[in-house]
Write a structure and sequence with these properties.
Shape: rod-shaped
Strand content: under 5%
Number of domains: 1
Helix content: over 70%
Order of helices and strands: HHH
Distance between the termini: 23 Å
Structural class: mainly alpha
Largest sheet: none
């Protein structure tokens, strides 16, 4: 890291503008919604059929993949959010140090 607080502030402020966690949380939410809808469809197919139709199994696999990716996206977004909050705290600390309010 640069020794000059002003230079460090400029670098960190540019990095703090990027909010990858927002995209990750949105992806997790959309996939979670898709998972819930598809789980309902699969559940209805399974409940109403004596023998599930052949397309039930690919749908169930897709449903599990959506759930897995939603959980993975959520966990990654939480990690990104923690990093972003630390970065923002350091930017605030540097601004206070330089007298910028």
């Amino acid at each position: 890291m640069p020794q000059d607080p002003q230079q460090e502030l400029e670098l960190l402020a540019a990095a703090a503008r990027e909010r990858r966690s927002v995209d990750g949380f949105m992806r997790a939410a959309l996939e979670g919604f898709g998972w819930a809808v598809l789980a309902g469809v699969c559940g209805k197919l399974f409940w109403d059929s004596v023998r599930p139709p052949p397309f039930f199994y690919p749908l169930a696999l897709l449903d599990l993949l959506l759930l897995w990716d939603a959980v993975r996206s959520y966990r990654q977004a939480r990690t990104d959010l923690r990093r972003e909050l630390k970065l923002e705290a350091r930017v605030r600390e540097l601004r206070r140090e330089l007298g910028i309010v």
